[in-house]
Amino acid sequence: MKPLAEIEARADALRAWRQDIHAHPELGFEVHRTAAFVADKLEAWGFDVTRGVGRTGVVGTLQAGRSTRAIGLRADMDALPIHEANTFAHRSTVPGVMHACGHDGHTAMLLGAAERLAARRDFDGIVRCFFQPAEEGEAGARAMIEDGLFERFPVDAVFGVHNWPGIPAGHFGLRAGPLMASASEFRITVTGVGCHAAMPHLGHDPLFAAMQIANGLQGIVTRNNKPIDTVVLSVTQFHAGDADNVVPNHAWLGGTVRTFAEAPIDLIERRMKAIATTVAEAFDCRAEVDFKRGYPPTINDPVQAAFAADILRELVGDECVDADVEPTMGAEDFSFMLRERPGCYVFIGNGDGAHRGAGHGGGPCMLHNASYDFNDALLPIGASYFVRLAQRFLAGDAQGRQA
């Protein structure tokens, strides 16, 4: 790894910021302490700071030179409702809440970049740092956009980073096009007529109908969806009844749908409603479908992905950059920003957990696991990546690539 010397010299400060945020995790939009921590530092470094964007988001703007070209750099701030299993000194001080996805590290990396950019101002244009709440399921990126993010703070492109356990520390993974999947949820409620289980002919069994619906849903993937369009449809919940000898009045099933494109979502929702209603009717029951579209797929702009890969190769070398990394069916709400502006999202390797010192939990160092901890060795290289992105993008290097 080859982080910038000025940032490497601040590694202890970045580590202290990250561990302070880790020790004080906050959920969803309630990231008041973290947002204040971020905003106070940006203001001290000379950024023009706007608080409360998308409820609790923070935007820091720094301008140098004469150019009006602008770049957006994004980090997420929220934690997860998980009780931490680690017992080291910077463990969570909030019962049932922990930074199990590394957003503490993402925030610290962007703060490190912001400090370096403000100190040197060796760029020509506008740098906007977007610190976002509520990535974990509440669409904080969408909330910031709906609050006028790109109208109030216009940018020509936007970039983000997520740590990734399993990729070696200091290595990066990215790809042009789809990197992460969409995430939609569904719940199908089937209503029948309850009766004694010994006399099923006197009722209309919603549980039996719901089982046929669950089987039928897989036909959407295997018979309606184009085979080259990757789709995952998983039924993950099935609820009905309270007694062994009673056929209930209601049953419901629910689950998730993941895709790498928007079009299959339309198909799945339409076919799901048709299958559920007609199968339920075949068994003299009635079905209602609640289909909720969550995060869209995270799709990197090809030009910006190639540009980002160039920056990474300069920092860590060709052998540490996988520019055709395997996409994941996990979802990420940075996707909302990429629908509005071209940009690129990359994975930075978090290693295999060997970085954790004494006091870590017994589980693996995986995302959304109670034994997870961000690898602080990544902070200088992640911050350096953000700095180089800003310098080179504002110099017009990405635009030149397109030409």
Characterization of this structure:
The chain is an alpha/beta fold and 403 residues long. The protein has two domains: 5-180 and 297-402, Aminopeptidase; 183-295, Alpha-Beta Plaits (2-Layer Sandwich). Helix content is 35%, strand content 25%. It has twelve helices and 16 strands. The protein has an eight-stranded mixed β-sheet with strand order 1-2-4-3-5-16-6-15, sandwiched between helices. A hairpin with a 3-residue loop joins strand 1 (48-53) and strand 2 (57-64). Helix 2 (11-23) runs antiparallel to helix 4, helix 4 (103-120) packs across helix 11 (379-394) and helix 7 packs antiparallel against helix 8. The radius of gyration is 24 Å and the shape is elongated. The model has no long low-confidence stretch (mean pLDDT 96). InterPro entries: Amidohydrolase, Bact_exopeptidase_dim_dom, Peptidase_M20, Peptidase_M20_dimer.
What's the SSE blueprint?
Elements: H1 5-8, H2 11-23, H3 32-44, E1 48-53, E2 57-64, E3 70-76, H4 103-120, E4 125-132, H5 140-146, H6 149-152, E5 157-165, E6 172-173, E7 177-180, E8 183-191, E9 195-196, H7 206-224, E10 231-240, E11 246-247, E12 250-259, H8 263-282, E13 286-295, E14 298-300, H9 302-316, E15 321-322, H10 334-340, E16 343-351, H11 379-394, H12 397-402
Parallel strand pairs: 3-4, 3-5, 5-16, 6-15
Antiparallel strand pairs: 1-2, 2-4, 6-16, 7-14, 8-12, 8-13, 9-11, 10-12
Explain briefly what this protein structure is.
GO terms for molecular function: metal ion binding; N-acetyldiaminopimelate deacetylase activity. This protein has helices spanning 5-8, 11-23, 32-44, 103-120, 140-146, 149-152, 206-224, 263-282, 302-316, 334-340, 379-394, 397-402; strands at 48-53, 57-64, 70-76, 125-132, 157-165, 172-173, 177-180, 183-191, 195-196, 231-240, 246-247, 250-259, 286-295, 298-300, 321-322, 343-351. The chain has 403 residues and is of the alpha/beta class.
